[in-house]
Amino acid sequence: MTGLFSEVFLSALLFGAVTAAIPLLLAGLGEQMSEKAGVLNIGIEGMMLAGAYLGFVGAFYSGSLWLGFLAGAAGGVAVALIMALLCVRIGLNQIVIGIALTLGLEGLTALLHHFQFSRSYPRLPAADATVIPLLSDIPVIGPAFFKHHLIVYLAIALVFGMGYLYRRTQLGLNLQAAGDKPAALDVAGIDVIRTRTIAVLTTGALAGLGGAYLANVGAGLFIPFITNGAGFLGIVLAMLARGRPVWVLFGALLFGVCLSLTTAMQVAGINIPTDVIQMLPFLAVMIMLVLFGRRASLPAALGIPYERGAR
Amino acid sequence: MAAGGVIRSSLRTIPIFLYWAFMSSLSSSSVAARDIVALEGATKRFPGIVANDSVDLSIRQGEVHVLLGENGAGKSTLIGMLSGLLQPDEGRILVDGKPTPITSPRHALALGIGTVFQHMMLVPTLTVAENLLLGGPWWQRPRTEELAARVAEITSTLGITVKLHAKVSELSLGEQQQVEILRAMVRNSRLLILDESTSMLTPKGIDELGALMRRLVEQGLAIVFITHKLKEAAAFGDRISVLKLGRKVGEIPPERFRALGEQAIISEIVELMFGKQKDDPEAVERPIRTVRAEAAPLLQVADLAVAPTDNAPGLSSISFDIRPGEILGIAGIDGNGQKQLAEALAGQRAATGGSVQLEGVAIEALSVGERRRRGLRYLTDDRLGEGTVGTFPVSINFFLKQVGAAPFWRKGVEQRAEIEKRAAQLVREYDVRTPSLKTPVARLSGGNIQKVLLARELAEGAKVVIFNKPTYGLDLANTLASRQRIRDTAARGLAVLLISTDLEELLSMCDRIAVIANGALVGTVKNADDARTKVGRLMIGLAA
Description:
Chain A is mainly α. In chain A, 71% of the residues lie in helices and 1% in strands. Chain A has a single domain (2-295), classed as ABC transporter involved in vitamin B12 uptake, BtuC (Orthogonal Bundle), CATH 1.10.3470. In chain A, α1 (7-36) crosses α10. The N and C termini of chain A lie far apart (64 Å). Classes of the chains: A mainly alpha (311), B alpha/beta (544).
């Protein structure tokens, strides 16, 4: 039992927490943007899967993690394009299309994986960490937070970039208006459909990137259903964050700790059935929903397709 | 630094102003005021109806052009075409004399056409400044300082004040409307369209809007003012066009307008709209009814109180009683607790104190359904939201409050024959214009939905009826029919509580009028000759 509280164990736990949190963070930030603009993006799980698959394929064949990330983001955008076309432009039901996209991508990526990799199960080499000098020498915290791949720091910087976007820019105003009162945006001369399309495509890019990170850095391989509900956790985070990116970060880290604990407890060999341990993150979701669910405030026009002139 | 910004921004806007001033002086001196925007034979069809049938309209600068018409006359469609939301199927729109299809709201704005829609078009979660900034190029940072300078410039000439940093959801409806007018001005509109802008305003707010419109046209703007109230049209307009069933049936040009008095104009408009009636059709002589003072009150309310909520005022010490055959009016500016009062009486809102007695029996602890069974009926003002289920057929909507009860349901099974028989009877009796009994009620017009509600609530067993804004949003014919229905109800010996924000309505119908302000009754006036001034003084906070 002493191993459980050793410095090494603790810093490994926190390192794992950050690694697990990054895909949730990217998915949550992406979902937040869609929801702000009034689109409930249930297809985000599918976008992450597309990103994970294409991200892995890109990195595996090119040998470059960055090309992998790029391919992952492009995969997410490709799925988001379908979503934008069907739900934003044509105005079909966002929930139905979102579920269909998620199920479709689960099947498609599993099938492609079966043909390509089911014999060999290739792995990527461990990702290079960008070690931040001085800070990484702090005991426990240093190895846990300051020895990650560069994209981790970029993702965290993105949180503040998003905060600036929402509060200080014209695009931020337009996004919020598209979600709260799209008709007002339309008569102000801004195309609501275009604004929402931009939001959905950005969601796709972020979710795809999150999926690619999950496969390439988190796991180093692709397996079917690798996202395991990360996209749905992203939706929960976005709903609880009340439109503030920094709350997505806090939530993602909290879930990250839970996810990391499940691995750590299995490694430590604690005598609890693994099924129970694996429930932990989802138990955390339920507890958070019970505690903070009432606080969730969603845009007034969330989930309602915009049609000009309709009352 | 800030001062530099102010100067630069005003330099940028002044030339546009000068340009228009210059152009307007040119045009007004050479020719008679030219049309800024004109419609020629504009026709717009929707499935099943012709919303606008070959309408000609000329809109000139310096004029308030009133578009008058009842619900469904095609006013909103016309506005839709001018503001770029709809395209005409036939005919064309001329801007400055040139045929110009207005393809989108953005295009309309670029042409200088600003619209204040009937339904507020502000984002409630953003501040006033942010709302005014909406629509800027997305890559720019919002130019807050520039905006503040521009707003100060405009508000000072118009004599209005605007709180730039308040959230829109915290403003009153009148203030929100000023923000919308301001937004049109900030964008250098030369044509301002006001769609039913007085429907949400207090009498004082309406007068202020009239004065503001006058100042705006004096600055060289053109205004299109849509209304269905004759008095406003006569008071605020320079030129009036009357629409009826999608056609323009007449126009009163400014020369004629000036030559006639207000009464003469009103009777001319009525002539145009209805053909035969002469006088203000809303002014119906109130028949003298005698309410037996010695009769025991049907409804007695004493010290009724309701706790305030986040978005609604509470009620405090509300006391009144209504005798059989009496109509008690509740006057007051909208949002002063009218809905809370109606809901507390109906049992839909928990009261925190006081008593409500129906025929001398306390009912304040009873449920909504039990109160209804004992004869207390409530006609909501939210006809589609809480009054009916829009997707259900007309027939079922008649019996929504009796679901499961015999003879329409037996052992939980719907008795279709019984329902249809009774529904057909009610449709005839209340003159509900519906294609069939199976038509979803939401497809009917507002007036016909109201008839369905009236039929349901006035059905057998009613003793006390609460009407909340019974004619709100209805056209003239349905308004008159509803009022007659309410009078008949009282004549049958029922007690009526009539909540309305339309003072004329109350004066024409009630025996007594109580005034509600901030959730309390501030006074009750007998409806005699001086009632108008007394109620008016109570409404604006002076003692009667």
